[in-house]
Design the sequence.
């Protein structure tokens, strides 16, 4: 049994500023009596109102109030919303905020994420949520509200909203916004994902799970460049990755030269492939200073990934929680790196491929392909569960997995702010749409609006 129901908001100008009228159906569903006085909650805003019950079989689930009260409850006339009752009163929506970076782009206030947010807002409204996108800097802590954006046929519009019940963090530096996060959590707001976690911390977390150990390539935190020398001697080729990097930026591959002393290296800057060589480990360190800077790095054994037309390929699995708070695999796609690249990132010029296409190209045996797919799905879900236990509740995680030429499966990394454009690149529009709806379903669950068990 769901603990919430849906109603339609309606304007009734005859009602006073302290009253709302609900239909008999809605009153019976929520267990309410005529003349009850209750708090109505919209996010972190509450207002005490007196109930009257309207008898009509034709009105079904409706709530009437004057235009001023609807506005104070952040309800739009003739729109449907969720409502649930608890010991404190009646909760509307829930109120869902999408926190993001603001850009000065006409018609695209959230830059490249603007279309994604349009889809999120549309999905949220269909689920009865009061939803908006906003930048944390627009919170008015004194008034307890925030300036946010909604989207309709006329485009983006700016309005004032209450502090939300739940937040879907999508700004690039949301891990750094701990002050805003702490203040909102203290006010009662819950967050969809915990702060971002770096590659080294992720590796240590995964290593503690004995079921994942065999999927982890040997990885070390670089404290001294002699560690790079040791790893190259051991594996012939390694990857150096920034601990807190994303989108494949500033990643370096180092190879031991064949038949002679020294090293070869490769990295990319502004999508330009840079290659070079160094005769010693000290000269290598000096040569890589330009790209590494003062950032912390890990060194990792190179996985001999499958290739298509000599381009490396890895697998992106999007795992998300559903409306019951349980992990599901939403979609799986392969990412093919651009020609000559050492990474497969779409943002760096990579392309998408279906997993079946890649596996059929390399493995003839049906049972071998099936085992690989089963391992990929196990590794993705187990990685999400393992990471969540260590860093706190999460709603979605992008898990990157490598398959080597022997068909062995390897964990590469996780992403708590995953893109889903790759599903469009492989023609899976329905997967992309599901990947948009799932966060809004989980946010509703996170706010305490629990769906009926399936």
Sequence:
């Amino acid at each position: 049994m769901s603990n919430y129901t849906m109603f339609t908001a309606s304007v009734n100008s005859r009602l006073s500023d302290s009253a709302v009228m609900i239909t008999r159906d809605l009153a019976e569903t929520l267990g309410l009596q005529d003349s009850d006085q209750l708090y109505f909650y919209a996010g972190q805003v509450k207002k005490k109102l007196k109930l009257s019950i309207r008898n009509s079989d034709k009105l079904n689930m409706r709530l009437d109030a004057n235009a001023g009260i609807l506005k104070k409850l952040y309800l739009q006339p003739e729109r449907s919303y969720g409502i649930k009752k608890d010991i404190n009163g009646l909760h509307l929506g829930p109120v869902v905020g999408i926190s993001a970076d603001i850009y000065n782009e006409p018609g695209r206030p959230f830059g490249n994420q603007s279309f994604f947010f349009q889809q999120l807002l549309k999905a949220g409204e269909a689920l009865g949520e009061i939803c908006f996108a906003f930048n944390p800097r627009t919170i008015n802590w004194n008034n307890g509200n925030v300036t946010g954006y909604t989207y309709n046929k006329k485009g983006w519009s700016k309005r004032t909203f209450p502090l939300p019940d739940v937040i879907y963090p999508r700004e690039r530096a949301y891990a750094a916004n701990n002050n805003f996060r702490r203040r909102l959590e203290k006010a009662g707001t819950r967050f969809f994902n915990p702060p971002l976690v770096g590659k080294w911390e992720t590796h240590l977390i995964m290593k503690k799970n004995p079921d994942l150990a065999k999927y982890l390539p040997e990885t070390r935190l670089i404290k001294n460049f002699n560690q790079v020398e040791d790893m190259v001697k051991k594996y012939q080729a390694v990857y150096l990755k920034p601990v807190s990097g994303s989108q494949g930026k500033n990643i370096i591959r180092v190879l031991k030269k064949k038949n002679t002393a020294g090293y070869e290296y490769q990295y990319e800057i502004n999508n330009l492939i840079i290659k070079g060589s160094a005769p010693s480990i000290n000269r290598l360190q000096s040569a890589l200073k330009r790209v590494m800077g003062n950032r912390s790095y890990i060194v990792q054994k190179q996985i001999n990934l499958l290739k298509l037309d000599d381009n490396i390929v890895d697998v992106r699995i999007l795992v998300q929680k559903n409306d019951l708070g349980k992990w599901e695999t939403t979609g799986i796609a392969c990412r093919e790196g651009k020609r000559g690249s050492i990474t497969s990132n779409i943002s760096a010029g990579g392309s998408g491929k279906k997993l079946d296409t890649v596996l059929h190209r390399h493995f003839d045996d049906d049972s071998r392909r099936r085992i690989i797919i089963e391992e990929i799905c196990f590794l993705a879900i187990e990685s999400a569960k393992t990471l969540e236990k260590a860093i706190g509740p999460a709603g979605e995680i992008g898990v990157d997995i490598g398959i080597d030429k022997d068909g062995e499966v390897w964990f590469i990394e996780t992403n708590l702010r995953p893109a889903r454009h790759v599903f469009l690149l492989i023609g899976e529009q329905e997967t992309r749409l599901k990947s948009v709806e799932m966060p809004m379903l989980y946010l509703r669950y996170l706010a305490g609006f629990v769906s009926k068990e399936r």
Q: What stands out?
A: Residues 366-391 form the longest helix (26 residues). The chain has a mean pLDDT of 92. The chain has four domains: 4-93, 95-191, 218-301, 305-446. The CA atoms of residues 226 and 281 lie 7 Å apart.
